[in-house]
Amino acid sequence: METLLMGGAENKGDCPKKTTRGETVDIALVGKGALGLLFGSIAQEHLGPEHAYFAMDDAHYEKHAQETYRINDVEIAFRDVRLSECSPADVVLVCTKTLGFNEALESMEPLVGANTVIVPLLNGITSERKAADRYGWDRVAACVAVGMDAERYGTSLAYSRTGQLVIGALQPESAPAAQRAATALDAAGIPHSVDENILHRQWVKFMANVGVNQVCAAYEVCYEELFADPTSEPYRMLISTMREVMATGKAEGVVLEEQDLNGYIEILRSLDPKSRPSTAQDVVNKTLTEVDEFAGEVIRIADKHAIEVPCNRFLLKRIRELEAAF
Q1: How far apart are CA 324 and CA 326, in angstroms?
Q2: How many CB atoms lie within 10 A of CB 107?
Q3: Which of 52, 64, 113, 175 is the least buried, fewest Cβ under 10 Å from its Cβ?
Q4: Are 107 and 83 in contact (CB under 8 A)?
Q5: Distance of CA 113 to the CA centre of its chain
Q6: Fold of 199-324
Q7: H or E element in which residue 204 lies
């Protein structure tokens, strides 16, 4: 099978430098998970490898720089560069798991200049705050990734729906960064929209993730199996778990409605029925999950407000048991 390097440039070497073309932006990606590969391939196709590339520390570079990835059965070679050789990018898409996010924030410092925008694509509701604590709210655009069904196993990625990135500002000083991020995503051909109430959008996605990611992982089912019977234990657990998030969100000042829950159920039903969300993929791959960012965070908030969240406590325990057997 032919290996494609989209854009026609070499995929290894020094960090790309700015050009004088008005529309050109440099987008660096940190993390080669499902979302990194999905949106990295789109950005590389539109911008070329000289302006869309993966940046990694020396250890990850030595391990992953020679890898070729198969995306929807097409082999693609990405441009990989060492962080130690990088200069600031216009936009940094952080696509790591939450388990590696703190390390990524520290190691990616060479990519961050005065006008760099950091866009965390992570699950959960804590990554923007952590990025702002390190680099300031004026460099952070909030992001919610919605509507994709990408599955990554090893170096293979398959998806039928690209979805989109929803961008917004969680703080007033983040508004210019969010606008610059949206402009850069447009240049990179990455589907996106801007939401003026990104906090609500984040919590809606958090509610969905806490439900579907954990239930599919704990019961080891795909979407088709989850939605096959609305009277089944996994489906009832899904709805109950999402309602626990609604209760904790209300306590934090974010009101989620039944229409938010039902709307996301319809989105999930539209995805590839044979696919699984990321936490369920982690269980299949026998890697540590993001359960602490899901049930763990719900429980921390619930404890603060004296709210009962038995479903999340059950899922945390069950997924920890699965991890212990890896």
Answers
A1: 6
A2: 19
A3: 113
A4: yes
A5: 23
A6: N-(1-d-carboxylethyl)-l-norvaline Dehydrogenase; domain 2 (1.10.1040)
A7: helix 198-219
C-alpha to C-alpha distances, 114 to 90, 227, 231, nearest whole angstrom = 10, 47, 53
pLDDT band at 23 (very low <50, low <70, confident <90, very high): low
Rounded to an integer, what distance in angstroms lies between the CA atom of residue 217 and that of residue 231?
19
- For domain 3-196, the question of CATH label 3.30.420.40 is answered with no
3-state helix, strand, coil in the chain (%, to 5): 50, 15, 35
Q: Is 193 exposed, middle or buried (0-12, 13-18, 19+ CB in 10 A)?
A: middle
Backbone angles phi, psi at 274, to 5 degrees: -85, -5
Structure tokens at 300: 């921390």
Sequence-separated (6 or more) residues with CB below 8 Å from residue 152: 33, 34, 37, 281
- What does pTM read for this prediction? 0.89
Tokens 């404890």 -> residue: 303
246-279 pLDDT, tens digit each: 999 999 999 999 999 999 999 999 989 999 999 9
- Burial of 212 per CB tally in 10 Å (0-12, 13-18, 19+): buried
